Amino acid sequence: SMRRKLLEATRVGRRCRRKGIFVGTLRHLLAVALLPGVVTVVVPAEIVRRTGTLNVGWGLTPPLGWLPWLLGCVFVGFGLLLMYKTISLFASFGEGTLAPWDPPRRLVVRGVYRRVRNPMISGVLFVLLGEAALLGSPPILVWFLFVFALNALYIPLIEERSLANRFGEEYLDYRRNVPRWIPRLRPWTQRSGRHS
Fold first, then answer.
1. Counting beta carbons within 10 angstroms of the beta carbon of residue 129, is it exposed (0 to 12), middle (13 to 18) or buried (19 or more)?
2. 164: confidence class by pLDDT, cuts 50, 70, 90
3. N or C: which end of the chain has fewer CB within 10 A?
4. What gap in Å lies between CA 90 and CA 66, rounded to an integer?
5. What pTM was computed for the model?
6. DSSP per-residue letters across 61-110
7. How many alpha carbons fall within 13 Å on the CB side of residue 179?
């Protein structure tokens, strides 16, 4: 009887964990699809569809025509890597997503966040810049500039204030030591050990 109860409790625990993993994965997929997915895929595709500006290779003859394509691929790849790393860190250490409606519950100061405060936005911007180069699309370059300008306003005026309110001195110390946009050459090591 006691053994049966333990086995049933173990089964229930496994089902709850599986459901928790599924819900957590769904939360991240929704946040990625709605935020960087729309900015880096949906809007650029619509820009190309509406403007018809598609000039792969920028009209240059090979082998020069391969340079914009190669540069675009490198930028897109690097941007996707940054996005992957930030989403992984939010999920595993921050206990939240990149979405403002479901933010991390813990301040994440690991990995790439030890070098720069906004690697997700940097990743998005690299993808957009890569798409503009890869597709030879000046309108996507304008979209890149708009996304950068919007974040250059939003991050210091809204996001950083919200983080300071949520995490207090822990975030302020991080903000003092890690740059917003241009990465530190050496990763920041926080002294007190309070950060995730």
1. buried
2. very high
3. N
4. 36
5. 0.80
6. PTTTTHHHHHHHHHHHHHHHHHHHHHHHHIIIIISS-SSTTS--SS---S
7. 9
The residue written with tokens 């229930």 in the block is 12
The pLDDT, as a whole number, for residue 34 is: 64
From first CA to last CA, the distance across the chain in angstroms is 43
Phi and psi, residue 148, nearest 5°: -60, -50
Half-sphere exposure of residue 153: CA atoms within 13 angstroms, side-chain side: 5
The answer to whether the CB of 60 falls within 8 A of the CB of 67 is yes
* Per-residue tokens: 68: 């914009």
Distance CA 91, CA 120 (A): 13
In angstroms, what CA-CA distances link 83 with 27, 37, 73, 88, 175? Answer: 16, 11, 15, 8, 20
> Letter for the amino acid at 161?
R
Helix (H) or strand (E) holding 7: helix 2-34
In sign, the C-alpha dihedral spanning 47, 49, 51, 52 is positive
pLDDT tens for residues 10-51?
554 445 444 544 445 555 556 555 678 889 999 999 999 999
Query: Pick the residue with more confidence: 103 or 128?
Result: 128
